[in-house]
Specification:
By secondary structure, the protein is of the alpha/beta class. The protein has two domains: 176 residues, 3-Layer(aba) Sandwich (Rossmann fold), CATH 3.40.50; 200 residues, CoaB-like (Rossmann fold, 3-Layer(aba) Sandwich). It has 16 helices and 20 strands. The strands form five sheets. It has an eight-stranded mixed β-sheet with strand order 13-12-9-14-17-18-19-20, sandwiched between helices. It is globular, with a radius of gyration of 23 Å. Bound molecules: cytidine-5'-monophosphate (C5P). Cytidine-5'-monophosphate (C5P) binds next to helix 13 and strand 17.
């Protein structure tokens, strides 16, 4: 890293605040200049002196204290940094952000910012699952705020579930990605498919694949953060889409193919993360099929292979495939990469990955295979985007 970057580290009230001391040390070791702002409740968990010592900069805790030092502190502090990271981000602070409140120094800084904002939520699992929290997070995603984690695991309260803040090394990696790779793909048009497809059998039933859409949505978020113009075509999921340039919801493989083919002429890179059904019903019954006591046969015919259709078209974009396997991961992935003529294929073992927030992946390209050790999907997404960047200029594909 050559250019020194400036970070505003916002700490809100939560026991995970103690972990941020370690993160602040890692950030400064990376030559990131860290300016810390703590909310009043954060100060009940950790002391400003810790962060002052670790970062070598004054720590701000109060709007009025900061006002005494400089005029308009909320403008100055947020203007002089390249990124704001709130870690831990409490449920209360997330609610404030989602509603644009500005009743303390940190919330005011966030509202007055003109730089990217990342938050690392940390809270009890029930607070995390509460519809109000999820609603607030959806709004923040739509506003372009990057959400790091949380992870699943044991919590300070003794319960187990979602809500653990990401560990310091994962936060550092996310920060590096957001601060140092933001221009990797500016001006590049990236198309991503995500989620499952649903192939109707009759008016109410259908065939689908187990896919949460989390990996595809994380890649869309990472692609946005790399400066790309992103189109996300998604099968049915429960997720809120990130702030992409264009979002196209679809149901079936045929609909996804149509949306992809409409978009590929304006696409430089196609990342096919969707778990597309391989078969669909030959005939969709318009009414609900009635139950009987005899066996029922449904004729299935192959669904279109969207990625193969695109990668073997006359002037294809740079194509990236995903392979989810239950056995013989390496062999199957290599066969698939050759068959679909892909410069890059990302493989994972499905038992570990579906619906999880972390994954372990292997990348296959012309240079061989590269392991991406277990990490949060957003971290993996940034690693994949960076890897694509190393291959993209040499792929012979020219950006039009
Ligand atoms: O299903 P399979 O393992 O062949 O999937 C590998 C890749 O091909 C994935 O990137 C997936 O998005 C894509 N695919 C597709 N259309 C299909 C099946 C898979 O685009 N019908």
């Amino acid at each position: 890293m050559t250019e020194k970057k400036r970070l505003l580290l916002g700490i809100t009230g939560g026991i995970a605040a103690y972990k941020i001391a370690e993160a602040a040390r890692l950030f400064t070791q990376e030559d990131i200049e860290v300016h810390t702002v703590m909310t009043e409740s954060a100060c009940h968990f950790v002391g400003p002196a810790t962060f002052q010592a670790l970062t070598g900069n004054p720590v701000y805790t109060d709007l009025w204290q900061a006002s005494a030092m400089q005029n308009m502190p909320h403008i100055h502090l947020s203007r002089k940094v390249d990124l704001i990271l709130i870690a831990p981000a409490s449920a209360d602070f997330i609610a404030k952000l989602a509603n644009g409140l500005a009743d303390d120094l940190l919330a005011t800084l966030c509202l007055a910012r003109n730089c990217p904002l990342l938050i690392a939520p940390a809270m009890n699992r029930q607070m995390w699952e509460n519809p109000a929290t999820q609603r607030n997070l959806s709004r923040l995603r739509q506003d372009g705020v990057g959400i790091l984690g949380p992870a699943y695991g044991t919590q300070a309260c003794g319960e187990t579930g979602m809500g653990r803040m990401l560990e310091a090394p994962a936060l550092l990696e996310a920060l590096r990605n957001a601060m140092f790779s933001d221009k990797l793909f500016s001006g590049t048009r990236i198309l991503i498919t995500a989620g499952p497809t649903f192939e109707a059998i009759d008016a109410v039933r259908g065939i689908t694949n187990r896919s949460s859409g989390k990996m595809g949505y994380a890649i869309a978020q990472a692609a946005i953060e790399s400066g790309a113009t992103v189109t996300l075509i998604s099968g049915p999921t429960c997720l809120t889409p990130p702030a992409v340039h264009q979002f196209i919801p679809v149901i079936s493989a045929d609909e996804m193919l149509h949306a992809v083919q409409t978009t590929t002429p304006q696409t430089d890179i196609f990342i096919s993360v969707a778990a597309v059904a391989d078969y669909r019903a030959a005939q969709i019954q318009p009414q609900k099929i009635k139950k009987t006591n005899t066996a029922l046969s449904i004729e299935l015919i192959p669904a279109p292979d969207i990625l193969q259709t695109v990668s073997q078209s006359p002037n294809p974009p740079f194509c990236v495939g995903f392979a989810a396997e239950t056995e013989q991961l390496v062999q199957n992935a290599q066969i698939k990469r050759r068959k679909k003529k892909l410069p890059l294929l990302v493989a994972n073992l499905v038992q570990d990955a579906i619906g999880a927030d972390e994954s372990e992946l292997i990348l296959f390209d012309d240079n061989g295979k590269h392991l991406l050790s277990k990490a949060a999907k957003i971290v993996q997404a940034h690693r994949i985007i960076q890897h694509i960047h190393t291959l993209y200029p040499q792929s012979g594909h020219l950006v039009s």
